[in-house]
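Hi support team,

I submitted a single chain yesterday and got back a structure, but I'm not sure I'm reading the token output correctly. Could someone confirm the output below corresponds to the sequence I sent? I've pasted both exactly as they appear in my results page.

Thanks,
R.
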Amino acid sequence: MIWSSVARLYALTNFAILIFYIKNYLVKTFMAITNAVENRNVRGYLQELAKELKASYIEYSDNTIIITIPLQKGRFQGVKVLIAEKKGEMMLTFTSSVCRLSEYDNIDFKHLLEMNYELCYTKIAIIEAEFVELVASVQYDVCTDEQLRNMVIEAATVADELELKLTGKDVY
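Hi R., thanks for writing in. Yes, this is the structure output for that exact sequence:
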């Protein structure tokens, strides 16, 4: 009696896990098909977005795009878009530099961590133990144009606001 209950519980658990994986597969497949049907081209969309924002668009290499966005008060902010495999998935990674850590000793790291909670798409990170940057990543196959737009804009505007607050300059 006990063994049959254990066997049923085991079977139900395995069934639930199987359903979970099938659901995730179907969602990924649906998004990939939707993007293919829309004939979506990430590079093409980023070029269109750059034109719309009156920004410069540079294909720096086969997998790196740099968009430099004009902001308020004559300021500019660069956003680097890297298209590369990460943990077995094709990913888009957005980065926008704020400052070099070694040049500013007045950085309130607790405040930066608290800011991460308020951000939607990007997070503040320390890259290569030297740069404070805004970073966002999204899976290439399932991201939407709206997500791309929001990531680029949030990375640029928040990085520029932090850069101004921390350095008083417009370097990146």
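A quick pointer for reading it: Residues 122 and 154 are 7 Å apart (CA to CA). Let us know if anything else looks off.

Best,
Support desk
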